[in-house]
Amino acid sequence: MLEKETDRLLVLIEHRTIGKGDSIMVKEILGAEIPSTIKVFFRTDVERLLESELARSQFDSRFDYKHREVQNLQRQINSILVLNFVFARQDYLQKVDDGVHLLLNYLLRPQWTIANFLLNQKPSVTLGQAREMLRYFGAYEYFKEILFRYAQEKMLDSFTAPDLQKLLFRIDGEYISRKDSLQLTHMLTPIYEFTAFPNFDCRKPVPTKALVKFFEDKRLRSICEMLDQKLTQGAAELHINELQVDLENVRRSSMSAFMPDEQYRPASSPAAAQPERGPKPGTAPSVGIRTALPEEQRPTPAAAAETPRRIRDLEGLFSEDDRKRVVRKVFHKDEGQFRSAVASLNAMQSWKQASVFIDEIFIANGVDPYCAEAVRFSDLAYQHFFPASTKGWSA
Q1: Are both 207 and 171 inside the same structural domain?
Q2: What is the DSSP-derived secondary structure letter of residue 118?
Q3: Which ranges of the chain does DSSP label H, i.e. alpha helix?
Q4: pLDDT one-digit tens code per residue, 140-188
Q5: What tens digit of pLDDT does each residue of 83-107 get?
Q6: Helix, coil or strand: residue 291
């Protein structure tokens, strides 16, 4: 399942980042033309490493590290340290492999991956630990939003394993049950985009078995049965527009088609492999989909480097609402600084150069790179260099 797509992506990421080099810095990874989800994975991993070291070094210190000015300066120092962190080649390639498999698992089976990644066979997880670990993931933001809102309303500071699994099922079920076939199909866009990178138009089909995994995770019996029938008929892959038609047909045949069935436990059918092992403590899981590509199918360095570019004026990509929110949050209400940054980005010839420039803006202005406005600014800048990529606000 997705072996070729996974290996192709690993080859492409290696070529566009470390290449033949012995080491690589985080800022070089962030500046590379690779999926944004991989960048989030690396930055989060290094940030958590730094936070752990700082917590140990500040333990029992008599200095006031909680002073507001100290914390503001510390955030800027942390950003510089993170950007300049160096991975040795072997460590980096292993981390890429772990990251790609973790993120693909999350895209296909978010409930299973979240529960296993957070709990890792432990009886419970604290709210703080959940917040830290979920920073690795970008898609399906509704899980995080509703999970933490629920914890706040119920004044919870931890989740037991059974409660977390039930809550994830309820969150997904209530969210899915309100969708029509078009909206449900749109939810799979991250899967199509991730496996088709560097193209973002979703024209590349996804293996039907992978789609079965997605709907099994949500326990949507009728859809899984429809996809199993497709497999029996020889439909090994499905384009996203074909999937939408199939989902609409299922919805019309059953009013409860988009209602999760808690009792549904898929048998070991040809479409449903047994769950892969969960992640080890402190690491991303490696899931058994590592079959190497035959030599003739591996992308050559030249082919992997090809990315269509069609530069256009960046400022024109900002809606009025985009502009106001980005100016307020990223540039501290300084319209002139915003225009100057946009002009500088317009003059740049590569996303790699622009990405480093954007990181420098975030550091200088003390901006959280994962806040909605910072993500939107980065996404629009990315679209400036790669117009086929289209992303909305990240919550």
Answers
A1: no
A2: H
A3: 3-16, 26-30, 36-58, 68-83, 89-108, 110-119, 127-134, 141-153, 161-177, 181-186, 189-196, 208-217, 221-232, 240-253, 301-305, 320-329, 335-347, 351-364, 372-385
A4: 999 999 999 999 988 999 999 999 999 999 999 988 888 889 999 999 9
A5: 999 999 999 999 999 999 999 999 9
A6: coil
Q: Is 285 helix (H, G, I), strand (E, B) or coil?
A: coil
Q: Do 44 and 158 reside in the same domain of the chain?
A: yes
Residues 184 and 178: their CA atoms lie apart, in Å, by 9
> Does 192 reside within a domain?
no
What is the number of other CB atoms lying within 10 angstroms of the CB of residue 152? 10
Residue type, 72: N
Record the pTM.
Answer: 0.66
Per DSSP, 331 falls in state S
Give the pairing type, strands 237-238 and 206-207: antiparallel
Boundary residue ending a domain (251, 272, 293): 272
Domain that holds residue 60: 3-177
Of 123, 148, 153, the closest CA to residue 134 belongs to 148
Residues with Cβ within 8 Å of residue 229, at least 6 apart in sequence: none
232 and 109 fall within a common domain? no
